[in-house]
Design brief:
three-stranded mixed β-sheet; alpha+beta; rod-shaped; 29 strands; single chain
């Protein structure tokens, strides 16, 4: 009996304990449900934990709290503007006339939350981005942008293209200058866009706001032009007129002849080269028909003008020859092309082989390489009959003929055979006259002179004929 009572009591105790446990669990469930519902109610108006918007922690904040924080961030907004050469400038919210504008995006984000999943949302991390909630006053912003140092004309360096510089005989590629001049329209548009977006930094260089040179030192056209100058200005042509008279066509001279076509290619201006040949060569070194200073056998120094002896540069031919040499980049010695040539290139182009004739003395001297070969009396043209031998000039022997017949009976009224004929100006020349003369010298020429030629004894004429060449100078003076 007692055993049965004991078992009943134990059974009742167990039942009571179970009821308590159930009751406790029920209470806990009610409390948990209440807490969960309260959390859902709370997060219906607050962002969950571990939530950021635009990088700002908005955990447990209401939409109004977030908007207030965004408004505060607008008021402290600073845009850093990175410029060339490491320069930076800033613009603030007030510079841009910036004000906060609620665009509804924060409320929309909060409304998108399911408050009944708050417990799970608090265990995760969420990051969101909303558009910068501002409005800028464009006129204010433009005025502030215009005051930036990067638009100050005194601080702006304009870009410059690389170019070839020819300075006398020197030439080089002058490097481009990038400068810091901005494309104003592009830059202003960019800054307005950046301010409106809330971006906190911008690099004007990487955004392509600067006006850069269009031609750099590596430009193919510049390099090709440099190669052209290497050839043209690398040439050097030397003209040697003896007696320390030298004219050198070097880079400094050639540079004055350079011209460029529409595509920038370098060449020589033929007119400029011709002018140089004319003024620097022909005018200085031509002697043909010009003044010659001569020392006579008697020791007198006389001045002779005219005649047809001397040097005369063929200007166009010399120009063409010089242009060809420079265009080929030649370093060379060059002789001009001549229309007329003398026997010697020095200052005394008559040289030391010549024939000297004195009308007043009725004498002829012939020098060969400085040595007197002939000294002889002569008979020149009769001035009293208008046949005087031309004088006061230097001529060149035009021809040599042995034998020859001078004149014709039909045209001249005479036909005189001679052994040695050396004309030097027209029909006037040196020749032997023993066929009709027995005497030479004195004043025979005044009464029985020739028709203009210089009559010589046979032996003298022969020596002179053998001593001279075509082109040998003949000096005649009175």
């Amino acid at each position: 009996m007692q055993t049965e009572v004991k078992e009943v009591r134990e059974e009742a105790a167990k039942s009571h304990t179970g009821l308590i446990v159930v009751l406790i669990i029920a209470i806990l469930l009610v409390i948990g449900a209440f807490g969960y519902l309260m959390g859902a109610r709370y997060y219906a108006t607050h962002f969950p934990r571990n939530t950021t918007i635009n990088g700002m922690d908005v955990s447990n904040k209401t939409a109004d709290n977030v908007k207030l924080a965004l408004n505060n961030s607008v008021q402290t907004y600073v845009l850093t503007i990175q410029e060339r050469d490491g320069i930076t400038e800033t613009m603030t919210a007030s510079d841009a006339g910036m004000t906060y504008q609620d665009n509804g995006e924060v409320d929309a984000l909060l409304n998108d939350y399911n408050p009944y999943t708050w417990l799970f949302d608090c265990l995760s991390e969420d990051s969101y981005t909303v558009s910068f909630p501002v409005q800028i006053d464009e006129d204010t912003a433009r005025d502030s942008i215009a005051l930036l140092n990067c638009f100050n004309p005194a601080l702006v360096t304009s870009p410059e293209n690389a170019c070839l510089v020819v300075d006398g005989g020197d030439y080089y590629i002058k490097d481009e200058v990038y400068g810091n001049q901005l494309d104003e329209d592009r830059t202003v548009a960019l800054l307005l866009k950046v301010l409106a977006s809330g971006q906190t930094s911008v690099n004007l260089d990487t955004e392509g706001c600067y006006i850069d040179p269009t031609v750099t030192s590596g430009d193919e056209t510049l390099q090709a032009q440099m190669a052209q100058l290497d050839v043209l200005l690398g040439a050097e042509v030397t003209f040697d007129f003896e007696d320390d008279r030298v004219e050198v066509v070097n880079a400094e001279v050639i540079a004055t002849w350079l011209v460029q076509d529409e595509e920038g290619n370098y060449s020589l201006d033929g007119d400029l080269v011709y002018d140089w040949v004319k003024t620097q060569l022909a005018y200085q070194y031509d002697t043909f028909g010009l003044t010659h200073t001569f020392t006579t056998t008697g020791g007198d120094t006389i001045t002779l003008t005219g005649g047809d002896y001397g040097w005369c540069i063929a200007r166009q031919d010399t120009t063409d020859k010089l242009i060809a040499a420079v265009e080929n980049g030649e370093v060379t010695d060059m002789d001009p092309e001549y229309q007329y040539s003398a026997k010697f290139r020095g200052v005394n182009d008559i040289g030391d082989t010549y024939v000297e004739i004195s009308i007043s003395q009725q004498k002829v001297w012939c020098y060969k390489d400085g040595a007197l070969v002939v000294e002889t009396d002569c008979v020149t043209g009769n001035p009293n009959k208008g046949n005087g031998t031309p004088s006061g000039s230097v001529w060149a022997i035009d021809a040599k003929k042995s034998p020859a017949v001078l004149g014709t009976l039909d045209t001249m009224g005479y036909a005189s055979p001679v052994s040695y004929w050396m004309p030097f100006t027209g029909n006037v020349g040196l020749h032997d006259a023993d066929g009709w003369r027995t005497k030479y010298g004195d004043e025979i020429y005044l009464t029985n002179g020739s028709h203009g030629c210089v009559n010589l004894p046979y032996s003298a004429a022969k020596l002179i004929y053998n001593a001279v060449e075509i082109g040998t100078a003949v000096v005649v003076y009175n």
